[in-house]
Fold each of these.
Amino acid sequence: MTMQRRYQRGDTGPAVAEIRSKLVLLGLLPAGAPAIGATSTIRDTRHHGGYEDAVFDDSVDLAVRHFQQQRAMTVDGVVGPETYRHLDEARWRLGDRMLSYSVGHPTVGDDVATLQQRLLDMGFDCGRVDGILGPATERALREFQRNYGLGADGTCGPATFRALDRLARTVVGGQPHAMRESELLHRSGPSLAGKTVVIDPGHGGADHGVVAHGLSEAEVVWDLARRLEGRLSALGVQAYLTRGVDGVGAGNVGNTGEEERAAFANATDADLVISLHADRNDSPRAAGVSSYYYGSGSDRYGRRSPTGEHFASLVQRELVARTGMVDGRTHGKAWTLLRRTRMPAVRVELGYLTNADDAARLATSEFRDHAAESVVVALQRLYLPPDEDVPTGMLRLPVFS
Ligand SMILES: [Zn+2]
């Protein structure tokens, strides 16, 4: 319905009935208030709320003025085309209807304004908040959907509403990339069963990695990878190794390079990648474990994987607590495997083979069991809701035969 004329106190009729019902919907007029004139008291009750009998009375006048004040309009208590259009737009709440860009007939309403405000809050530039779904809003919406792992169709439907609703209650003002990771983590739930993890034992084949104190890095991390794989499988995790014992990758494809290993991980659509290495140093005194996640640049424009960083810190803390190794801490690095994997990836350097003490520990099956256990515990803690997390070194896993 379009409103050509102006309605004010004393008017009656269908248009006034509609104005009243809109004001009731907006909570500005009590529901069930008499919608008909004073003469109605002597009429049949069937006429209550009657279309023809609606009266623009003092309560309507007050509600209209209240509404005009809220919307920064001229406060005159008169409903002309401008006020009517605002009344019509105001009834839409985000989620009431599908929103999409339509050339020539832009969707207008408070739901569009809410969408625009949310997009701006999250850093997606849709121009100004005007309640009109134009090309800039559509572009920002698609960008949001892409970053959020939703189908970037530019249509605001149920999945997008849910995502917007959840984000409004959690992250606002975060980096889109960081939000997507947090969302995927949240969506996947606390159970390890059903998750997919890629275990990447470094080096392999002709590449032995560090060789010192009678140990070869490629062999040590291969053995560790198998222990880890066994524990994860027992918990229902689908574990993939990037290479076989001989260094050849799955399907006999040589996964020797970091690029190939990253591509392999991406192809499995894993939840997480754990790369296992042992370190070397010219100084035989250098010792300890360190964990690395994807991170580049230290300023606010730098990119990093927040989930990777969190997982690295959990792995690092569990390893130090359970093995007694020196704490080499966590570090952000832009190494190929960390950068090219689409999922959070962590590389663990489990000690220095060039250090006599570290090498002696890495040689034992006891240390390797503790190390594998540390990674599994860290993985479990990563998916636990914050209020269910346990202190480092305390989480016990099922006993493995
Ligand atoms: Zn290595």
Note: Residues 202-203, 209, 217, 277 surround zinc ion (CB under 6 Å).
Amino acid sequence: MEEKKVIIVGGGLAGLTAAIHLAQKRQKVTLFEKDDFPRHKVCGEYLSFEIKPYFDRLKIPLEDLQPKKITKLLYSSASGSSLEVNLPLGAYGVSRYALDHLLYKKAAEEGVELIQEKVTEINFLEKHFKVTTSKNEYTADYVLGSFGKRSVLDKNLNRDFFQKTAPWVAVKNHYRLKDFPDDLVGLHNFKGGYCGLSNTESGNINMCYLATYESFKDHRDPEKFNEKVLRKNPFLDNFLAEATPVFEQPLTIAQICFDKKEAVKDHVLMLGDAAGLIHPLCGNGMAIAIHSAKIASEELLKHFENQTSREEMEFAYKKRWQKIFSRRFNTANWLQQILLRDRLAEISQTVISIVPFLLPKIIKQTHGSPIL
Ligand SMILES: Cc1cc2nc3c(=O)[nH]c(=O)nc-3n(C[C@H](O)[C@H](O)[C@H](O)COP(=O)(O)OP(=O)(O)OC[C@H]3O[C@@H](n4cnc5c(N)ncnc54)[C@H](O)[C@@H]3O)c2cc1C
């Protein structure tokens, strides 16, 4: 059995950021990722500017990718009534293909041990962990769980949310369309869900939508769903009439749920979506993943300097997670409830068009401040 100090399970934004942070503080880190790089992932690809100061500190050269700078939001209801507002903070338009790969290369450069193996089990045995992968067995003093929204590991760790229904599906494709603005993110409602549209560093426009399984199941095929459901919204109709898909087949994921999760389970510090997935309409999940990596890394480093016991370190991480993210999750929950009820969505849109400064205030509630 190979012995490791810190094992990070999952090389998405949360896992790779924590790996870079810890490695820069001269910690030996091993990260397991089951898939290879680069690859596309289902995501709205709207990365809140709040991550900028933290990425600058970690010397992650995000600007090298030449991401788009998004400063405006265009929102439309299912019937097509719309309004446009300036975003309080703004965001990068950057593909996960480029972003995750950038972090992967940075982690390698910082000396993180990157192993492409699927972790199948994590067990805490009194003082250390046994981590089993598809190929090997390892021991570790500390484990960070950054394996995303749903994994076989959640089942093995007996997490409550895994038993519940996961009633959402998501679909993503990139499109080519001349003259699509660089600085605009569209959030367009349709019956049973909503769809984000925004430009990326490559000039391809990302279209990513979330729909209830209930509304999707009658059509199943994304092509048919686009035709029969999305195109009822005039904005999406125009877009789909003019844009050309880049991928032959869209990427789809199912079994998405937004139930509460634990920030620490069986001594594993959970990061990113493994600690909780926020409704994507807030466009904040990536920043939360990155921010959670920062807090976990800081608490671990304090523990390594003998400032806290393992128990105190876990408690401090849980407490900071709650304090920083709970409000955003709560606001996102009620916003989601409103957007998915056609009538309520229309009423709130009328209210906002009368009092337009309300929308930036609501958006602010779902986002954080720049991560210092
Ligand atoms: C439809 C949709 C649209 C979204 N749009 C946006 C948006 O526009 N802006 C935004 O900020 N957020 C958005 N989000 C949320 C955002 O995608 C996530 O919050 C973010 O990806 C979380 O990062 P993560 O590192 O926690 O997980 P991930 O990026 O999912 O990474 C998890 C990694 O763990 C690996 N893994 C899993 N299991 C194992 C295992 N057993 N062994 C080894 N490796 C494993 C996976 O392969 C993966 O690479 C969206 C989410 C959805 C569903």
Note: The pocket of flavin-adenine dinucleotide is lined by residues 9-15, 32-35, 42-47, 118-119, 146-148, 151, 153, 170, 196, 208, 210, 256, 272-274, 280, 283-287, 289 (CB under 6 Å).
Amino acid sequence: MAKNYTAINWDDIEDELDEFVWDKATAQFWLDTRVPVSQDMSDWQSLTDDERDVVKKAVGGLALLDTLQSEAGCHVMRDDVLTRKETAVLNDFLLMESIHAKSYGTILTSLNVRKDIDAIYSWMNNNERMQYKAQVVNEIYKTGDGLQQKIASVFLEGILYYSNFFTPLWYLGNNKLANLAEIIKLVIRDESVHGTYLGYKFKLGYQQLSEPEQKS
Ligand SMILES: [Fe+2]
Ligand SMILES: [Fe+2]
């Protein structure tokens, strides 16, 4: 007979950080619909065409990369967990990635007409450099081992995200687009939890390797 399917017992502690991160990540749950991005419209209209173009591409790039996190990144990493609660934590991350990806769409639709929105999606879905970034990371998600996937995820949510966060935060520093920046700040708060947790799990997994494996 097949082995019994067992429930996760949250009273059992395999790794204290799992429950700590679960509590923190679930407590900071948010939805894009609670942020009134359309109130940024007068700021938006005060920008030049070129400035709007930069913001649209920064937000569009984030939509592409967060879609990848929601469909591949947090999904594949669930195959290489060290504890069962880690799966629960990754499930939370996975949902938040879908909310992040949608929230960038909310920003674009709150400030633009349909024709412009279609143009920005078409740009990020076809731009050579954006596609290069997404495809390099996706390739590691598809073919890498659990440790390589964690590194790819932390790089994606670190360097690649932050290069796109810069523009909206720069406008915030100039007292513009405050609601758009509010969404970015909520995303950053989540990503810092994701990066810390995955970096920690990487370290644990790496320590379990033999010395020659660590070097290879
Ligand atoms: Fe995200
Ligand atoms: Fe994330």
Note: The chain has nine helices and no strands.
Amino acid sequence: MSEDRLPLLRRITRKEHAAIAFTLDGAPCEGRAGDTLLSAILSRSDSLRRTEFSGEPRAGFCQMGACQDCWVMTETGERLRACTTPLQPGMRIVTMTGKAA
Ligand code: FES
């Protein structure tokens, strides 16, 4: 994911909630208590992942656990649905094309 593009989401709530540290493709990141993985990732990135079929950027679609468009993985290979997974401290997330640190 490009660092020079603006994040897809702009945080308007939970700005004062406790910070939660995690890594995304090996880079240190920070979300807020109450974030899902999807909201935490898209608050710092312009896409959630790249599709394994065409390489096009994806950002989830339904935001409610139905469309399967928001899968990400942990560095240990566990698949997580980003829109329904609460952000937890120390999560080490990789995108479909990302490389674990
Ligand atoms: S955005 Fe549809 S399942 Fe997550």
Note: The beta strands are 19-24, 27-32, 49-50, 57-58, 71-74, 79-81, 92-94.
